[in-house]
Amino acid sequence: MRYRIPFFLLLASILIVSCTDLATMRTSQPIAPVRDYEILLVGNLEANYIGDENCLTSCHTHDKIATDFKPSVHGDQISEDTGLPLVNCESCHGPGSQAVEHAAEKKTCDFKTLLPIAEFPAQAQSMLCLKCHSAASTPNLFSWNSSVHALNDVSCFDCHKLHKGVEQKVGRQEQEELCTGCHTQTKMEFSQFSHHPVPEHKMACTDCHDPHSSTNRKNLKGVTSKALCTRCHMEYQGPFVYEHADVTEECTNCHRPHGSPNEPLLEVSQPFLCMQCHAGHQGRELASLSSPTMKQAFYTRCTDCHSAIHGTDIPSAHGRGTFIVR
Ligand code: HEC
Ligand code: HEC
Ligand code: HEC
Ligand code: HEC
Ligand code: HEC
Ligand code: HEC
Ligand code: HEC
Ligand code: HEC
Ligand code: HEC
User: What is the pLDDT of residues 201-235, one digit of tens each?
Assistant: First the structure.
């Protein structure tokens, strides 16, 4: 009787330990179980590495993958000392001896003995790539683990489809479809009347965002929106003799970056854009007229006169200041 409860607990704990499988590991945990992932990546300890030739000749199903892989950046990595490939199928898919053991009789390989990388939790998937792509070899990945994508369970091969063809990078042409596949709100923004020509493939998401990580907010390629935007729109960089106060320090005070119903990419249309901060006004010439209706006539396209809205070096003809009219 004395042992009943402890025995029951013992049994329970054995059950819990054996249940620590992929499914439980995939559920979010406060600290990434890095060691568990490392063990996952080692794979099947019973199997041996046999090299690409043995893998591929036993099982011709992957001939297209193999012909694409050979001239790719990964397939092209050959050791200077041994002349052997540095990256081969087994670098990512794990040792293959068991997969080909009965290939001759069965006429197919036993793929289940390879690493089930598609089933891995996202962090383990990325670790598969990061074992070679350390910050030292790929500086752009220096803070991958703290990036918004890593923290939201996006893995390297959610974006890098390594067997789609020879290209291992995500091409500029592919980005719009790839990125907006997850970012549907952004897709909607780019479909608006006024937009940066990303859907037309003249620009790519990575012109403005770093896909991996960045020390700037929203993974932007600039500390402020001004620093980002003036990489291309240099004429608005300034400094100008007559600035529009410090309003243009953030272009996003007035513009939307992706798309907008208001030309040109304006947050709000005129005159309401300006009237968020200014009272509108009538012209002197109008005010001097006697007709009461004309007196109340009110400007709607403020930049017809205040055309140097982004700042200028030219003083106003009116004498005092600039009023950013030219
Ligand atoms: C740099 C890592 C890497 C290398 C090297 C590599 N693969 Fe893959 N392979 C992947 C990833 C990542 C996937 C996608 C897993 C997923 O999401 O389903 C994959 C998927 C596959 C699939 C599943 C079908 C498919 O297209 O998604 C096959 C088959 C395959 N690889 C065969 C090979 C063969 C054969 C080689 C050697 C010529 C090879 N791989 C080399 C990373 C690699
Ligand atoms: C066995 C080591 C190894 C593994 C594992 C590995 N890579 Fe690579 N990868 C390399 C080497 C070496 C290069 C070429 C040198 C470089 O660009 O750093 C490379 C280059 C690349 C490039 C650059 C292609 C280009 O055109 O510049 C991409 C993208 C890439 N790898 C993605 C991945 C992804 C995604 C994974 C995980 C599925 C992965 N790699 C796993 C070794 C590896
Ligand atoms: C959100 C999508 C996305 C994810 C996730 C992602 N990449 Fe990339 N990666 C890209 C894009 C897009 C490029 C091309 C960048 C360019 O052309 O400026 C790229 C380029 C690269 C390159 C080429 C060198 C460079 O830095 O430009 C390597 C290597 C690479 N990625 C490896 C990885 C690895 C390893 C992971 C996981 C730790 C990863 N990537 C995760 C989208 C992604
Ligand atoms: C597999 C889905 C997926 C893909 C593909 C993807 N993302 Fe993301 N991305 C996410 C998730 C999830 C988040 C975090 C939640 C959010 O902010 O929507 C995120 C966040 C971001 C953020 C930061 C938002 C913030 O609030 O800080 C940017 C910028 C971004 N992604 C750009 C890109 C770009 C550029 C690409 C293509 C190169 C891309 N994403 C591809 C899923 C994806
Ligand atoms: C012209 C530069 C530019 C291009 C091109 C661009 N973005 Fe952005 N993106 C921005 C800026 C700037 C912000 C920050 C907006 C803010 O919050 O101030 C942003 C914000 C985001 C966010 C965070 C959510 C939000 O709307 O604030 C996501 C996600 C995102 N972009 C995804 C994408 C994707 C996907 C693409 C390609 C289809 C893309 N971006 C192309 C400049 C750009
Ligand atoms: C990588 C270069 C690049 C960056 C960075 C960039 N733009 Fe642009 N911008 C363009 C191109 C290209 C066009 C289209 C010009 C055309 O269609 O003639 C454009 C057009 C515009 C237009 C005019 C749109 C119209 O409908 O006429 C505005 C406004 C604009 N950008 C504002 C911004 C702002 C604000 C930012 C920063 C968030 C920014 N741009 C960042 C390249 C860039
Ligand atoms: C105070 C609001 C405001 C701010 C801040 C602002 N803009 Fe504008 N921008 C406008 C207005 C209004 C127009 C339209 C002018 C017109 O239609 O006459 C415009 C037009 C543009 C155009 C298209 C016209 C052209 O010259 O081709 C670009 C590009 C542009 N802005 C870039 C920027 C950049 C880059 C920044 C940040 C340095 C910025 N804007 C900050 C209000 C603003
Ligand atoms: C986010 C707020 C904000 C928006 C939006 C804004 N402005 Fe301004 N504007 C300011 C501030 C702040 C000043 C400086 C006021 C001062 O010095 O008294 C200023 C100054 C001005 C001046 C006087 C310049 C001078 O030389 O004294 C004019 C003219 C002007 N803005 C026109 C516009 C027009 C036109 C728009 C719309 C296209 C606009 N502003 C949008 C904040 C804004
Ligand atoms: C017909 C041309 C014209 C239009 C349209 C116009 N303005 Fe002006 N604005 C001027 C002139 C000229 C001045 C200089 C006033 C003066 O000399 O007394 C001025 C001055 C200003 C000032 C500075 C006032 C001060 O005393 O410091 C602001 C702010 C301003 N305008 C905002 C706006 C806004 C907002 C709109 C749109 C609702 C607008 N303007 C439309 C011509 C115009």
Answer: 999 999 999 999 988 999 999 999 999 999 999 99
Ligand 5 mean position to 257 CA, how many Å?
Answer: 6
For ligand 3, the distance from its centroid to the CA atom of residue 178, given in whole angstroms, is 13
Distance CA 149, CA 157 (A): 12
Question: pTM for this one?
Answer: 0.92
Ligand 4 pocket, CB under 6 A = 148-149, 152, 154, 158-159, 175, 178-179, 181-183, 205, 209, 211, 218-219
Interval between CA 86 and ligand 4 midpoint (Å) = 32
Closest CA to 38 of 157, 116, 121, 128: 128
How many CB atoms within 10 Å of residue 197?
A: 9
Backbone φ, ψ for residue 243 (5° rounding): -90, 160
Category of 208 on φ-ψ map: left (φ > 0), alpha (ψ -120 to 50) or beta: alpha
From CA 183, how far away is CA 169, in angstroms rounded? 20
Task: Give the chain's largest Cα–Cα span.
Answer: 108
User: Which amino acid is located at 246 in the chain?
Assistant: D
Write the CA distances from 170 to 110, 173, 177, 258, integer angstroms.
31, 8, 11, 20
pLDDT tens digits, 108-126: 888 899 999 999 999 999 9
84: pLDDT confidence band, cut at 50, 70 and 90? Answer: confident
Phi, psi values for residue 78, rounded to 5°: -115, 135
Whether the per-residue pLDDT at 298 is higher than 70: the answer is no
Query: Residue 266 above 80 pLDDT?
Result: yes
Contacts 24+ apart (CB under 8 A), 141-148: 141/212, 141/213, 142/213, 143/213, 143/215, 144/212, 144/213, 146/213, 147/212, 147/213, 147/214, 147/219, 148/213, 148/219
Determine the pLDDT at residue 142.
Answer: 87
